[in-house]
Design brief:
Length: about 150
């Protein structure tokens, strides 16, 4: 099976990226400057991570915040509309399943961005004990970058 390419594939290729297959996607692994140069640029300026290959799950309803808060390490109930937070998805015993991002889109609507390789395991495998609507999307090819540095 041929790996999918994000909409930013050509940008990565023109920057000289070396690619690897990840969860069915052709993803950049390293650039000509090397990982130390990438690290220094991210620490001193800004680094961008192409998240367009990742799984997207919409959660909405009156209990959406409480339900998400019961699953992740971040205080989702305090998240303001239009903001996002990095969080850990936890098992009932407190162990970590994986990391993810939660975006509060509206008062009762959230977008959860999860690792593409673990989409089914992470969210759809969690029992839904409250009245929330969950819509799981296959990763959508779109331009989506996440800031990973001190400058925005």
């Amino acid at each position: 099976m041929h790996a999918q390419q994000t909409s930013l594939y050509q940008w990565h290729a023109s920057a000289g990226a070396r690619f690897t297959s990840f969860a069915g996607w052709e993803m950049p692994l390293q650039y000509p400057g090397g990982s130390i140069a990438e690290h220094q640029l991210t620490r001193n300026s800004v680094g961008l991570f192409d998240i367009s290959h990742m799984g997207q799950v919409y959660v909405e309803g009156p209990q959406a915040a409480a339900w998400l808060a019961s699953l992740v390490s971040a205080d989702i109930t305090a998240l303001e509309v239009g903001l996002s937070t990095y969080a850990l998805l936890c098992r009932e015993d407190g162990g970590v399943i994986d990391d993810l991002f939660v975006y509060r889109l509206a008062e009762q609507r959230y977008l959860v961005v999860v690792n593409a390789a673990r989409l089914v395991v992470e969210i759809t495998g969690v029992t839904d004990p409250m009245a929330v609507t969950i819509q799981t999307l296959i990763p959508v090819i779109m331009e989506n970058m996440e800031n990973m540095g001190p400058e925005m």
